[in-house]
Every structure is written in C-alpha cells, then in structure tokens.
Amino acid sequence: MKTLRVDLDARAYEIRIAPGLLDAAGEHLRGACPQAARLFVVTDSTVGPLYRGRVEKSLTSAGFRTAFHTVAAGESSKCASRLSELWESMMDFGLTRTDAVVALGGGVVGDLAGFAAATILRGVDFVQIPTTLLAQVDSSVGGKVAVDLAHGKNLAGAFWQPRLVLMDPQTLGTLDERTFADGMAEVVKYGCIFDADFYSFLEQRPSRGQVMGDIESVLHTCCDLKRKVVIEDERDTGKRMLLNFGHTLGHAYELAGGYETWTHGQAVAAGMVKAAELGERLGVTPAGTGARIAALLGCFALPVDIPCTAADYAAAVGLDKKGAGDDISVILLEAVGRAVPRRMPKAELTALLEETL
Ligand SMILES: NC(=O)c1ccc[n+]([C@@H]2O[C@H](COP(=O)([O-])OP(=O)(O)OC[C@H]3O[C@@H](n4cnc5c(N)ncnc54)[C@H](O)[C@@H]3O)[C@@H](O)[C@H]2O)c1
Ligand SMILES: O=C(O)C(=O)C[C@@H](O)[C@H](O)[C@H](O)COP(=O)(O)O
Ligand SMILES: [Zn+2]
C-alpha cells in the first residue's frame, strides 16, 4: 500500500492507495473514526450498483451501522436541493456528532457529501472513497467541498478536510473513456504547473492503457504534489491558487454549457490550452506551449477549444474565487512545470479573452 500524509496538525490525515482497498474499508474507517457507530454513505446511481455491496459488507463486518443515500449520477446533483435532502436524510438516520459521512464516488459525490459533512450538526467527520481518476488525483484531497449555484461553479462551500482518503485503483477499470479522460485533464494539469519531468513521463504514455500500467505511481505523484501545496496554503490565499490553472476559463465553459454539455475535466482541458495561449500573448509563456499541451490532451480525446461568448467569460471572471475586488489572479505558465500567478484588473482579462473570440 502507498501512503501519503497530509500534515495539517489537528486535521492531519492519510491518503492510502492500494488495489482491493474497497474490501478493507471497514477496518480503515474503524481506525480513522474510532468513536463512530453510524456511517452515512453517499454514492450515485452508477457507482452504487457497482461498488455498494463490497463497501457495505466491509463496513458492516467492522461493526458500523450504515445508511446509503444515492443521488443521480452527474454534475446536476451537486446542488443546494440535493444538499438539503442529504441533511434531512442524515437526521432520519439519527446521525450524531461522533458519527461520520462517507463519500463513495467521483468528484460530484465527494464535493456534495463533504459539504453536507461540513455543515450537518456544525460539522462531522468525513471520509473520501474516490472512484474516478479525477477524484483520486484531485478532488478527494485538500478539503474543498461545495455545491454549484445558478450563478456558477462551487459558489457555496467550505474547507473541510477528510479524516481519511482511501483509493482503490481497480475501481478505475469500470470508467467509460470520457470519464477516464476527464481525470487525465487534471493529471496533465499537475505536470503543467509543478513538474516538467512528470509532464514528459505523461507524454511517453499517451493512452489509457499506458497510464493504467503505471497507475499507482501516477496517483501517488499527483496526490503528493497536491498534498504539499495544501499543507502550505490550506485556505487558498497563495500558492494553492496554482491548482486553479485552466479553471477560470474552464468554469466559463462549464457554465456556458449549462453544466451538461461539458464535463469539468473537458472544460479544464480547453481552459488550460487557452490559458497557455494567453501567457504566450503576454510574453510570459514560451511560444508553442499551448500547442504542446493541446497535443497531449488530444491523445485522450479531450477538447482543446470550446465555444464561448464574451458574456460567459465576463461572468466566470467576475465570480472567480481568485478575484480580489476589481482584480483577479490569473494562473500562467513560465514554462511547462512552472506556474505563476499574475494579478491584473478583471476588465483587462475579459478584454484579452474577447480578442480571442
Ligand atoms: N474539491 C476539489 O478539489 C475538486 C477538484 C476537482 C474537481 N472537483 C469537482 O469534481 C466534479 C467532477 O468529478 P468527476 O469527474 O469525478 O465527475 P462525477 O463525480 O460526475 O463522475 C463522473 C461519472 O463517472 C461515474 N463513475 C464514478 N466512478 C465510477 C466508476 N468507478 N466506474 C464507473 N463509473 C463511475 C459517475 O457516476 C459519473 O457518471 C466536478 O463537480 C468538479 O467541480 C472538485
Ligand atoms: O484544490 C484546489 O485548490 C483546486 O483548485 C482544484 C481544482 O481542480 C478544483 O476544480 C476545485 O474545485 C476548484 O475550486 P474553485 O475554488 O475554483 O471553485
Ligand atoms: Zn478542477
């Protein structure tokens, strides 16, 4: 088993990576949540039929009382209405402050269940069991939990760290191609922002089969990079903003498509290419970087150019959490492997983006 520690003092936790871990969930949770009698498990309509049975058996064998709550698969479940239903369902189950919430699924389930855990009874313990590539490399680590509002992405949320992250790479075997590719967008992001060698490693593995051949190492590298930045800047006021490379524009594309046309991973893919091209125009990013990133993303059939209006760009720039008054920090690349924040007026960024339409 590979283990990483997110060392946040009283909120420290481990990320454990091993094939077959789903069947051992009970014993791992017993250690992480020693006081818990009840576990409220949130999953979705695709993941539940695939993995609930194994997880339930393991949790029950470890002596937990469990309740499973299933939401419809997809981004539309990451909303205030489903959150409110979760709260009521937790109370029906008799959840108390010493009990815990478990997220079994992708980033949607993790963000939704995590925000419910952060807010029910003013906060209960939370465990992530991520089952998509995106959730294993990114969303299950770091404690950003949220729901979307009609105004935009992740606008109501909290920082609520899990007590434990358990990832079983075998669950990736049942992902469809598009969902695997969504995760690759965030994997490529880590190479772009922090690690040129990892980026080259990915360029040498331009297919799902090749990535899966080294999956434990890929998961470990991504989680290690994220863990370090979260320890340094848990509340996203400085270095953590680099993890948002491609996301200002990505969130614009998600919003433009009503959260149905483009997945988060697809939108981030196109957003990273656009951000690299923006850096090239500003003289920050070496020429050809956008094309290099587009070539790698294209190997996984990710979109590298998504149609968008000036109004969509303006809305996303206005709502971005990297905003400070009339300014925004844009994440640019000085090179593949080295990201930097650049503060500029929001109006200037919007005008620069409009020139690309
Ligand atoms: N909190 C964070 O730091 C963070 C980071 C990145 C992304 N996110 C959020 O994560 C969400 C995207 O996550 P996602 O890409 O995992 O999407 P998702 O949770 O919607 O999962 C994608 C699809 O895969 C299915 N699925 C999940 N596991 C499966 C498995 N093992 N086998 C077969 N099908 C499976 C799901 O049912 C769903 O239909 C977005 O809302 C995004 O904003 C959050
Ligand atoms: O963990 C972070 O910090 C990230 O920015 C990771 C992103 O991949 C993720 O999509 C996150 O949810 C974006 O957060 P937001 O603050 O831009 O809503
Ligand atoms: Zn993301």
Question: Can you walk me through this structure?
Answer:
By secondary structure, the protein is an alpha/beta fold. Helix content is 46%, strand content 20%. It has 2 domains: 2-174, Rossmann fold; 177-354, Dehydroquinate synthase-like - alpha domain (Dehydroquinate synthase-like, alpha domain, Up-down Bundle), CATH 1.20.1090.10. The radius of gyration is 20 Å and the shape is globular. The mean pLDDT is 97. The structure holds nicotinamide-adenine-dinucleotide, the ligand O=C(O)C(=O)C[C@@H](O)[C@H](O)[C@H](O)COP(=O)(O)O and zinc ion. The ligand O=C(O)C(=O)C[C@@H](O)[C@H](O)[C@H](O)COP(=O)(O)O is lined by residues 138, 142, 144, 153-154, 186, 236, 240, 243-244, 247, 321. Zinc ion binds next to helix 11.
Basic shape = globular
Helix-strand pattern: EEHEHEHEHEHEEEHHHHHHHHEEEH
Mean pLDDT over all positions: 97
**Computed Rg:** 20 Å
Q: List the bound ligands.
A: nicotinamide-adenine-dinucleotide, the ligand O=C(O)C(=O)C[C@@H](O)[C@H](O)[C@H](O)COP(=O)(O)O, zinc ion
Multimeric state: single chain
CATH superfamily of the largest domain: Dehydroquinate synthase-like - alpha domain
The major β-sheet equals:
7 strands, mixed
Decide which structural class fits the backbone. Answer: alpha/beta
Blueprint of the fold:
Elements: E1 2-6, E2 13-17, H1 25-32, E3 38-44, H2 47-61, E4 65-71, H3 80-93, E5 100-105, H4 107-119, E6 125-130, H5 133-139, E7 144-149, E8 152-159, E9 164-167, H6 177-194, H7 196-203, H8 208-213, H9 215-232, H10 247-256, H11 264-281, H12 289-298, H13 310-319, E10 323-324, E11 327-335, E12 338-345, H14 346-354
Parallel strand pairs: 2-9, 3-4, 3-5, 5-6, 6-9
Antiparallel strand pairs: 1-2, 7-8, 10-11, 11-12
Zinc ion is lined by residues 138, 186, 247, 264, 268.
